[in-house]
Amino acid sequence: MTIVQPMTPARSGTAEPGYMTGFGNQFETEALPGALPIGRNSPQKCAYGLYAEQLSGSPFTAPRASNERSWLYRIRPTVAHWGRFERIDAGLWRTAPCAEVEMPIQPLRWNPLPIPAEGITLLQGIRTITTAGDAATQSGMAAHIYLATRSMVDEVFYNADAEMLFVPQQGALRLATEFGVIDIAPGEIAVIPRGVKFRAELPAGPVRGYLCENYGGALTLPERGPIGANCLANPRDFLTPVAAYEDREAPTRMLVKWGGSLWAAELAASPLDVVAWHGNYAPYKYDLRRYSPVGPLLFDHADPSIFTVLTSPSETPGTANIDFVIFPDRWMVAENTFRPPWYHMNIMSEFMGLIYGQYDAKPQGFTPGGFSLHNCMLPHGPDMDAFEGASNADLKPHKLSGTMAFMFETRFPQRVTRYAAELPERQAEYGAYGAKLRKHFDPSRP
């Protein structure tokens, strides 16, 4: 196998070696000098005998601000990396709409899923917890847990149904994509656009994490409104890989998720053979610890939307197909204020996970690797210990440290899969946590 990194170093600045900085930029990168055409996209003959191929992530006529496409210069075009596809078992991977089981209307929470002892790849280890919307209409999402104990070998995958947001919780993950190589570990995320081929490798042993399939509009940075030009997730902190290619003539299995089904074909060579590319449709990574949070400096608790890292917009302004929201380290300084999240009911539904540390609204029972679901228009909020503690705390400035929780939030109700409903890790008593809250009402005392 030949894996070739660029002949010239990555651009100077804060970028890590092998990455380019910025969100949604018009990037260009080549692994061999002169492989990238200048002044045109599709010359009569490409350098090095390469093929030109365009990968479009939006309709051709999408407005310039939302038009996404990249030109790839590869050893063989994708149509040559093709074979007789056969439908194969998708295991515990489900796609919306999926109504396998009816769950009680209550909060739901699960303990972390154990990493299995047997050898499984990331694709074999995807376990769907919830689905929402309809993949065929390009709306909604699915929330999964991924588990893996071995690298994908002689296998490559792409998802035609959805963009994929990886959130590692345990172990490092290497995503060898046709655009270049992305390394992520707990505290970082990676986004692989639909149609982008990749192989998942485990450079340091077994892994566990969360995965969001986004069927709708591509994830982008939220508008900051009155916050202005800075803070939250800053564009310069997003990293896109530089070109790296494989010139590998060996049997390779191509797997494709299309229409909710998993398909496989045998190829004669690796399709990760892009020698150069340019455009704005590409995979990227982001370190969540670089998120710059904002919040109330005097009193009250702001809406959790102030912690939005990425958003997938819908046709309704201000109503997200998906919001990816985090709860990182931050100072709590509000005076005369109940500082944890308040009790509420919400039109959005919230799938939540804990990467590391402790979540302030649920100090007990919500452990790293665990996850919960608080669905559309169902009540939720702090448990009794969190309420009593926060109601009686000495309100000095306090820093929440060593914590990273997140939400996949969507406008659609999330349907729980049969697999998730029957997991022994589901906390059967969690739905009644609100019943433990004590009555404090006393009409004689204001």
Automatic annotation (TrEMBL):
* Keywords, comma-separated and alphabetical: Dioxygenase, Iron, Metal-binding, Oxidoreductase, Phenylalanine catabolism, Tyrosine catabolism
Q: What class of enzyme is it?
A: oxidoreductase
Q: What is the lineage of its organism?
A: Bacteria, Pseudomonadati, Pseudomonadota, Alphaproteobacteria, Acetobacterales
Question: What's this protein's family per the entry?
Answer: Belongs to the homogentisate dioxygenase family.
State the PANTHER family in the record: HOMOGENTISATE 1,2-DIOXYGENASE (PTHR11056)
Its biological purpose: Involved in the catabolism of homogentisate (2,5-dihydroxyphenylacetate or 2,5-OH-PhAc), a central intermediate in the degradation of phenylalanine and tyrosine. Catalyzes the oxidative ring cleavage of the aromatic ring of homogentisate to yield maleylacetoacetate.
- Under Enzyme Commission nomenclature, its number is 1.13.11.5
Which InterPro entries does the entry mention?
Answer: HgmA_C (IPR046451), HgmA_N (IPR046452), Homogentis_dOase (IPR005708), Homogentis_dOase_bac (IPR022950), RmlC-like_jellyroll (IPR014710), RmlC_Cupin_sf (IPR011051)
Homogentisate 1,2-dioxygenase N-terminal domain sequence ranges:
19-288
Sequence positions that bind homogentisate? 380
List the protein's name: Homogentisate 1,2-dioxygenase
* Record: residues binding Fe cation: 398
Domain Homogentisate 1,2-dioxygenase C-terminal positions: 290-441
Under catalytic activity, the entry for this protein gives: homogentisate + O2 = 4-maleylacetoacetate + H(+)
Instruction: Report the superkingdom from the record.
Output: Bacteria
Q: In which pathway does it act?
A: Amino-acid degradation; L-phenylalanine degradation; acetoacetate and fumarate from L-phenylalanine: step 4/6
Tell me one Pfam family matched here. HgmA_C
Q: Which cofactor does it need?
A: Fe cation
Which species does the entry assign this protein to? Paracraurococcus ruber
How this chain assembles, per its entry, is: Hexamer; dimer of trimers.
